[in-house]
Protein 1
Amino acid sequence: MLNQIKGLHHVTSMASDARRNNQFFTDTLGLRRVKQTVNFDAPDVYHLYYGDAVGTPGSVMTYFPFPNIGRARRGVGEVGTTAFAVPKGSLDYWAQRLTERGVAHLNRDERFGQARLKFEGPDNDAFALVETDDDREPWTGAHISANEAIRGFHSVSMRLRNDGPMAELLGFMGYEKLDRSGSVTRFVMPNGNGADTIDVETLPGAGFADLGAGSVHHVAFAVKDRADQLAVRKALLDTGYQVTPVIDRDYFWAIYFRTPGGVLFEVATNEPGFDRDEDRAHLGEVLKLPTQHAHLRSYLETHLQPLEAG
């Protein structure tokens, strides 16, 4: 069993409109945009990162906004819901805030004894706010007080036809089964980074998902450094998984592998962080480009959609 993984690092999804996506996360949800850069493989598309004050691993939601992307088709083999942790007693505040901003399909319920507020993002993305005792420091620069502000991720919920192989993989990664309720099994990472919960929902008869706007593209798990990442990579290879070589993503190093149920996993390092090329006081304010795309700056600054309304 691995002991290097500490919980979630980031979650990366697809969007249809960069400005609308930016407004939703920085205003409606009150997260900080900690980086604006571009997709390594499609540099005419943004890669936007939102999180706490410094983009602490376990707090970072990232997006590829493709202007002409089709809508996602829901199903199995994907992350269904991405959940954020908020303080206990704050859901009334959030219900009012989201209602005032026209957020769709608000619904309260409980899962494993925790109160949560479910809602949809601009591309019908499935989200939830979960009340927890969480001492992670929130970003309050969007004028949401520390009594209500998002702490980071609580969990992701995956939809699969068969949860057996995923349960085995999560156990190998260091997660422990906490409980089961109906079709949902909860796994937790002992002594994790706060973003340390995974729910697996079993839907044996459901069709498979198709990627599109509102889909989660991949889920990244956090390790401290490159040495831990290499240890994880070797263990996964030895177990029979097909794992990519280490890829430099500027703000972390990444490896990827496809899980038995179809969800794409990444293992990302906590180093070097989002302040490697920007002062912490000004994270995310200007377009940063990977070295291989630096020559495209004049073109991209003209053709990428401005994130704020002019």
Note: The first helix runs from residue 18 to 28.
Protein 2
Amino acid sequence: MHLYRWLTSIVAAPLLVYIVFSGSRRIFYALLFAASVKGLLEVFHLIAPQLPSVFKIIGIILNFFFFYFLWQGLFYQAFAMVCLWVIIPLSFCLFSSPTVRGQAAGVTGSLVMAFLYICLPLGLLVVIDRHPKGNLWILFLLTVIFISDTGAFYFGRFFGKRKLYPSVSPNKTWAGAVGGLLVGVLSGLFFSYLFRLGGFPLQVGLLAGSLSICGQVGDLVESMIKRNAGVKDTGRILPGHGGILDRVDGVLFASPLLYLYISWFTP
């Protein structure tokens, strides 16, 4: 499993860097959309395994238009799509069988949670990409999150004794959390210096540290959802890593913070 984890990273990381940094934006946005669809299906499997297929299809169609409007820069239309994630499922339930009508709140709640948890954070990466140096900021985010995750794994493996949150994730330790935070901050500072993103070192360090913490919280939240569902991984699409959600859980929690930072502190 550990070997597969490294092989997957060695193959996928350079390709991802190329797509984000200099590849076609259509390909990058298509990749985000594909990740969001796979993430949606994984979340549906975890929180609503009995969800009728028609609602999954509705979610995927709404998600397509959400990403399409973001890609076109039609942000008000994308905002309207957020409302439709509630309106359309409820309307469909209204004109369905009594059994489906009785599940209206649960079905709609599952769709809305999946959208807010998966689609909206990944959609923010499209918005960030439209910002000056947006591709570099996305690489900054991925660098901090992934290196922090790797650092937490090895610090926990070699130095971890005291468990961080055993009832949710038995393998995580305080040493891993602190080690992940430290390497996340250092990687953020180095990346910012290398690519001249701007900002004082203290400011960049605080941002990187905050992103690392958000990523670790996102990891714990995903562990909580998986434990509640009684599964170890959300999928097998990434050998050694699991499903899409297993790989982007930290990015989902960190992307809103990065978007707010760029909106407030960069020209």
Note: The two ends are 44 Å apart (CA to CA).
Protein 3
Amino acid sequence: MKNGVAIANVLIESLPYIREFSEKTVVIKYGGHAMVDEDLKRNFALDVILMKYIGINPVIVHGGGPQINRFLEKMQITSSYIQGMRVTDGETMDVVEMVLVGKVNKEIVGLINHCGGKAVGLSGRDGDLVQASKMTIHTTHDDTARPPELIDLGRVGEVTHVNVEILNTLDEQDFIPVIAPVGVGEDGQAYNINADLVAGAIAAELKAQKLILLTDVEGVQNSSGELLSSIRSEYIEGFIASEVISGGMIPKVKCCQSALEKGVTKTHIIDGRREHAILLEIFTHEGIGTEIIR
């Protein structure tokens, strides 16, 4: 009986959030350890199915860097990175698309469907969903007299437009979209795009209620290693300048900042290693991880 009462109390606690987020869109960037551990993979599938059944519209964008690395190693193709981005020539792009679209995407879709959901796999090339242009970056020099130098990353792209018509159609038919972060350029070629950036762009175009980035860390931490449960967007530049936010966390918070500026209501960086991390964030008073808000 005590267990039954505890379950009832959990449901009662979640009721205001179910009411608040019903018929709202939540975009989830799925990556890290949550995509590798078998129990966490199943928990993730069940979480998004539950969200769909209670009226929330989950949209999933997934990564797949470790899986790509394994295939490249088998094919004896060496990857190089510049400013954290994989240099992607034509041969590497073929492998990226094969792994993300042909393997990782189908595995996620298959698991959700096996667990009782209705998922459909897409890449950014389907229906021109994610349109892209070639990303350009420049070197910087300590010598201010030297001009910055253009670096060619190959087929690495950045999002220029998101065509959400196909996502709206899938939502109307109660499907869960699962999107591989491969975009299409004006020339019809595929582009490798950071999954966080794709998730942020899709969330912005859909005016999502939430953008949730699953990571392999607890969230954003201060200089003492303590979790920052909430950050206002206007403080981010100061945190970066003081190196409270550094390394791989910078593009994630920048992604959240951009999404907020373009109309997303609230963004979150949470620990995907925790069981049912998404449900804990959405349906509890305390939440988990770090929320970034306007």
Note: The chain has one domain: 23-293.
Protein 4
Amino acid sequence: MEAPAPTETAAVSGGDGAHDKLPRARPPRGRTRDLALPSLIVIGAQKCGTSGLHYYLSLHPEVSMSTPKELNFFIAERNYQRGLEWYSRHFDPAARCRGEASPNYTAYPQHLGVPERIAEVVPDVRLVYIVRDPVERITAHFVHNYAKRREKGDMRATLTHPNTSYVTRSKYFMQLQRFLAHFDEEQILVLDQRDLREDRLATLARLFEFAGVDAGFRHPKFEQVRHSTSRKKRATRLGMRVQRMSRTRFGRRIPRRAWLALDVALPLSKPIDRPEGVAEALGDEVLEVLHEDAERLRAHTGRAFDDWSV
């Protein structure tokens, strides 16, 4: 199961927690004006195309995206204590636009205080929030965890457990509202994953304009589909042991292609299908909460999201 949330907030809670008292992390050290910090952050949502956005942005000559993609800097229990000097080393100071993509930034209440920290460090930053059908996102999230052998129990109990983020990550307006308390609306761009899939060039032009770079830039690789919903595999018990071995000091000396060849030879994983009945497992009460949140997002953005199931 996922890491527990810091509070026992129910998955079907309707409140936005805007007045919660948040644990404050150690203030950043040093003066930000002397550091290369991001001007663009993709804040989520998980399993909605953040990897694709990161890749397409990285192809633009005026944009420098971080390596690795997910720095998780503004999460207190992850990398915030490493300090701004550590964070700034992931960005090219000469780039017109510097960015990163960490979908865990919209994982309230599992990770608290993220908008506050971002606003303190980079108050003028531009934020990109990409969303999709809330139930489809939950399905992809479950498959992701199941493939990594993190989930084994009853689907309904797993999806609605108060210490998991399946439902809360799909409450897009609730997550967005926490950022709107600290940033102007003009600083936040909301995209639908379908935009990137079905109208990619126009969507990227809009994204580049928002980022302050040449919106007319085109690249042949814009035609490539990144991280499409291909069939995932679930490691066998032997496969899990091999994965752990590959991450050891000895295992890292062995070429990656050798590990891949071993997977084909044995094999070490089995294909899995996307589960059916996720909406039924969530139940009417949770679906109503997702519907109410989606309606608030529709009202805020002026978009219909008419292909969504809630």
Note: The chain has two domains: 34-229+282-301, 233-271.
